[in-house]
Design goal:
The structure holds 2 protein chains of 2 kinds. By secondary structure, chain A is an all-beta fold. In chain A, 0% of the residues lie in helices and 49% in strands. The chains are: A mainly beta, B mainly beta.
Chain lengths: 116, 113
């Protein structure tokens, strides 16, 4: 168990809908990262928050947004969902803002989003 | 659990044998490489890393080899155990920063008891 929790585990919704994925980082970690893993695709970095502020942005669509709250949990909002958004969404956390050692980054178990 | 990489290449290995998983990376300028293990229903887990100024690094039962000439990484697992069954993928990074990491799709390792 990495200590990073994500809810829900599974989510099934329809095209055009909006969903919110939630992540709680490990105790003491200030950074939260969101990744998308489509079937047979490598992980794609979406966005990073550090202590409530956006730190880095990756391949995140404009239909997607995220935030990190004062208690450090984070939410990823996906709107106007399309079939192609079906994927595993992972959250990861680390203590620092820009850890150079990747063994300092811990991943949650993911949320499986299915868009029908 | 969640299925990852339904159509990934699969390596089947007898328990106790050594496993070798290969990865071709794309950017000759990448200077940092990581191997991850992803078990069904879990997120990726860091295994071992290597910087471009090295060609070999050893951990506990794992060894990573880097061949920059042909842009190739390999992960060797000694005395493979059933608990090693998972998807393994490599990642490459250019001068650090999580947004600069490119992840591979992976290889599924099946350990036959």
């Amino acid at each position: 168990d990495s200590g990073v929790t994500q809810t829900p585990k599974h989510l099934i919704t329809a095209t055009g809908q909006r969903v919110t994925l939630r992540c709680s980082p490990r105790s003491g970690d200030l950074s939260v990262y969101w990744y998308q893993q489509s079937l047979d695709q490598g992980l794609q970095f979406l966005i990073q928050y550090y202590n409530g502020e956006e730190r880095a942005k990756g391949n995140i669509l404009e239909r997607f947004s995220a935030q990190q709250f004062p208690d450090l949990h984070s939410e990823l909002n996906l709107s106007s969902l399309e079939l192609g958004d079906s994927a595993l969404y992972f959250c990861a956390s680390s203590v620092g803002a820009s850890a150079l050692l990747y063994n300092e980054q811990f991943f949650g178990p993911g949320t499986r989003l299915t868009v029908l | 659990g969640e299925s990852v990489g339904l159509h990934l290449p699969t390596l089947s290995v007898q328990e106790g044998d050594n496993s070798i998983i290969n990865c071709a990376y794309s950017n000759s300028a990448s200077d940092y490489f990581i191997w991850y293990k992803q078990e069904s229903g879990k997120g990726p887990q860091f295994i071992i890393d290597i910087r471009s100024n090295m060609d070999k690094r050893q951990g506990q039962r794992v060894t990573v080899l880097l061949n920059k000439t042909v842009k190739h990484l390999s992960l060797q697992i000694a005395a493979t155990q059933p608990g090693d069954s998972a998807v393994y993928f490599c990642a490459e990074s250019l001068s650090g920063g999580y947004q600069k990491v490119t992840f591979g799709t992976g290889t599924k390792l099946q350990v036959i008891p």
